[in-house]
Design brief:
By secondary structure, the protein is mainly α. 69% of the residues lie in helices and 0% in strands. The longest helix is centred in the middle third of the chain and has 25 residues.
Length: 286
């Protein structure tokens, strides 16, 4: 199915950003999120009839979540477009395996697959980039293996001899030997046979606060609250609105006595105006 999707008319957006990254993200965010009923209907069509149009619609509806997850890996110095592309591969794998009868939403199921593909890409490329960052390390990277006479760890004398030969320090030789000898751990290693014990990172590195659906829902809720607060403030009289802004919304907040001096009333009167304005806001915001 992944190949079929890649060759479809939607391949430009499914594969990942090709031109402007901002344009791609804008396009992905404009694709409507599916309702639970529509998602179940499409998943059933795909599961029972291998309907590629249903698969495309499911994938497109989740692209915004891939972008959201990919942004969390920005600190590795890898291109955001590549991170999104790898995440899209994971999304397509998830859509292929998604069972509509399990009773979970696609985004909940797909998060694991999206992260797994991005993790593999980061681990693979980050190690390649970071393994040799200085001139001495690059020299060691390309020459150390052929300098070693056996497969075991270097002895102290061998370390010094190679360091002198390459014009680097013995410490650099030891450090590079450790790096070359290290192996990357697969994020989602399968278990062997009937053995249920797995030490793959996916099983012991939970991140309970990173569900993209919950994060986006929280962001949408905060945006909605901010908009409703602005509308509610506009319904207040000028003095009440200014007092609330000065007391709670401005960076440099004023005290009751400072406002009392400004409006030539008592501090108790300012407190009463403030309390009445807050009550009106609560009613207006529901």
């Amino acid at each position: 199915m992944t190949t079929a999707l890649a060759n479809s008319p939607m391949s430009s957006i499914l594969a990942g950003p090709v031109g402007s990254l901002d344009s791609y993200i804008h396009a992905a965010n404009n694709v409507p999120v599916l309702s639970a009923e529509r998602e179940h209907e499409l998943a059933t069509q795909l599961h029972e009839h291998a309907d590629m149009s249903a698969a495309r619609e499911m994938v497109l509806s989740q692209l915004r979540f891939v972008v959201h997850i990919a942004r969390g890996y920005n600190g590795y110095g890898l291109p955001m477009a590549d991170l999104i592309q790898e995440g899209n591969v994971g999304l397509m794998k998830a859509v292929k395996r998604f069972n509509p009868e399990v009773g979970v939403r696609l985004v909940t199921y797909a998060v694991h697959w999206i992260r797994a593909e991005i993790h593999e890409y980061v681990l693979r490329n980050w190690r390649m980039v970071k393994v040799a960052t200085t001139k001495a390390q690059r020299k060691l990277f390309f020459n150390l293996r052929k300098k070693k006479k056996h497969l075991g760890w270097l002895s102290a004398d061998e370390t010094v001899a190679i360091a002198n030969d390459l014009g680097v320090s013995a410490k650099d030789v030891t450090e590079m030997e450790k790096r070359l000898g290290a192996s990357d751990l697969t994020y989602d290693a399968p278990t062997d046979g009937d053995d249920d014990v797995s030490y793959a990172p996916v099983h012991y590195l939970p991140k309970t606060n990173a569900d993209p659906a919950e994060l986006i829902e929280r962001e949408d809720h905060n945006d909605d609250q901010s908009s409703r607060l602005e509308l509610a403030l506009e319904q207040l009289d000028t003095r009440s609105r200014e007092i609330l802004q000065a007391r709670w919304l401005n960076d440099a907040k004023l005290t009751l006595h400072e406002l009392a001096t400004q409006y030539s009333v008592s501090a108790e009167r300012i407190r009463q105006i403030e309390a009445a304005a807050i009550k009106k806001l609560q009613i207006a915001m529901g």
